[in-house]
Amino acid sequence: MIHINSMTDLDSIQDDPDLYRETVSWLLYCQYEILEYGDYDDHDFNLFTLDKHGKSYIMDLVEPVGSILTRIEFCDELRLFRRLVYPSEIVLYEESVQ
């Protein structure tokens, strides 16, 4: 599990372009909302990216406020990313393709 509080924390996932793109796009959207509606000096993105072993973390959380599934197809490769939105955090992980 990787905890991302700011754009500088993204270095740890830059070797995975799909995950990086999903995470950056969500952070930029959150940053826009904070600038538009909130106090930028008092923020914490609180985004977690989970690996296969980190999914047990989800079991300890309450029901998410929202769930978004992103499907990425490139050549013959298919990847699915699930983003779970909670009041105090966002969890992003890759789902298995079946």
Descriptive overview:
The chain has helices at residues 17-37, 56-59, and strands at residues 2-4, 47-50, 66-74, 77-85, 90-95. The chain is α+β, with helices and mostly antiparallel strands and 98 residues long. The protein has a 5-stranded mixed β-sheet with strand order 1-2-5-4-3, with helices on one face. Strand 4 and strand 5 (90-95) form a beta hairpin. The two termini are 23 Å apart.
Q: What's the overall average pLDDT, rounded?
A: 81
- Total number of strands: 5
Largest sheet: 5 strands, mixed
> Number of DSSP helices?
2
Q: Report the order of strands and helices.
A: EHEHEEE
Low-pLDDT parts are: none
Strand content: 25-35%
Provide the spatial order of strands within the biggest beta sheet.
Answer: 1-2-5-4-3
Structural class designation: alpha+beta
Dominant shape: globular
Summary, kept brief:
The chain has 98 residues and is of the alpha+beta class.
How is the topology of this model organized?
Layout: E1 2-4, H1 17-37, E2 47-50, H2 56-59, E3 66-74, E4 77-85, E5 90-95
Parallel strand pairs: 2-5
Antiparallel strand pairs: 1-2, 3-4, 4-5
Q: Which labels suit this protein?
A:
98 residues; alpha+beta; five-stranded mixed β-sheet; 26% helix; 32% strand
